[in-house]
Specification:
The structure is a homodimer. The first copy, chain A, is of the alpha/beta class. Chain A has one domain: HUPs (Rossmann fold). A 5-stranded parallel beta sheet of chain A has the order 3-2-1-4-5, sandwiched between helices. Chains A and B meet through strand 3, helix 3, helix 4 and helix 5 of A and strand 3, helix 3, helix 4 and helix 5 of B.
Chain lengths: 220, 220
């Protein structure tokens, strides 16, 4: 089986991508802590997903620079995480060029272990408008890999990039994804806030898919 | 003055680029520790260069993942740093996709502080054949920035990419670069080994430029 890396945040999208990759690949799961508000919870979720999917190997990386750089509501507690769905433009939860940092580390690891594919759960259509979640960004990244690596043949794969969030839920149900283990909230680690952009998209997706979301939400 | 980031390893090339950038920009110096053999020495050199050039601000980032990933003679002590000039192909001192990781972090910082240029001392013609030191790699990286950032107008600048090493020495002398503070050796931190690819290129460059290199070399 081909070796593949799966970038796994612990959110519902990356869990579905982990299930897709696990079908036909020898998987290497990669989780990145970057000083985000829900870092601890996401690490725990990642380990639960490791336990569930049983990859060949997993790695947790800490990228300390996002915290020292700041500039995002996710990494700087002085910037509020807004409530409500983000409508247009790039919201304050955008972490500058985050996914380029994540993909670069993934490619470095892939080159060492001989993995040829890197799976990431980016979604373009039903997301907060982050520039580093769009198809064109990943296409250019694949060009960059050809130019800047020794092996040249590593590829970023984005299997759910054109799916709507409710379609991701439906696909996940088909693939037995343990959605109850995943976490999407930007803000809280004990119970999901239910009001940030990420919670609202998740709740809407489950509703539209006709599936109940069993993670705990706060009533506060 | 325009804000610019300078990626500074502490080697002779990046010191010359720091001098170039300092002429017309408000500079922000960035140094990255990545578990390389000479990490401690390079950090000290960086701080000496900060003291010399007096940037507006500086930042030292530690990227721990290169050490845990390994796969390079610079980050894995089980892989020998070869003596002699590297002739063809990619040498074992290649750190997989290292510069993509460095540039990604630089772009993240640039976006937060509003810098529009990132200077890097990559050299294509007179180097060890690293794929992430070639012009085409940086051109594609600039496309990636346009696609993957909110600001879109940050640019990687490679002012010495087509210079031969001896031309870099001559330019540095003209710009009063304190070459005595810089460090190029891949292997040692006390005295330069004088025999690794990086030392040999440095020594040859100074010789061809007719300038004496005053850093200490070992006789062992």
């Amino acid at each position: 089986m081909e070796k593949s890396i799966v970038l796994l945040s612990g959110g519902m999208d990356s869990a579905v991508v982990a299930a897709i990759a696990s079908q036909e690949h020898e998987t290497y799961f990669l989780h990145i802590n970057y000083g985000q508000r829900t870092e601890k919870k996401e690490s725990e979720v990642f380990l639960s997903l490791v336990n569930y999917f049983k990859p060949r190997k997993y790695l947790i990386i800490t990228m300390e620079h996002f915290k020292s750089i700041g500039g995002s509501a996710l990494t700087d507690t002085k910037i509020d995480v807004p409530y409500g769905l983000s409508e247009q433009g790039v919201p304050p939860t955008y972490v500058p060029f985050r996914n380029a940092n994540f993909l670069s580390a993934s490619v470095s690891w892939a080159e060492v272990i001989g993995a040829k594919k890197i799976f990431i759960g980016a979604t373009e259509e039903d997301s907060a408008g982050y520039p580093d979640c769009k198809k064109g960004f990943y296409e250019t990244f694949n060009d960059l890999i050809k130019k800047g690596t020794k092996s040249k043949d590593i590829q970023i794969v984005t299997p759910i990039i054109h799916l709507k969030k409710y379609e991701i839920v439906k696909l996940g149900i088909k693939l037995n994804v343990p959605f109850h283990l995943t976490w999407s909230c930007y803000k809280r680690e004990d119970r999901a806030c239910g009001r940030c952009d990420s919670c609202l998209r998740r709740l809407r997706a489950f509703k539209e898919a006709g599936i109940s979301d069993t993670i705990p939400y706060t009533n506060e």
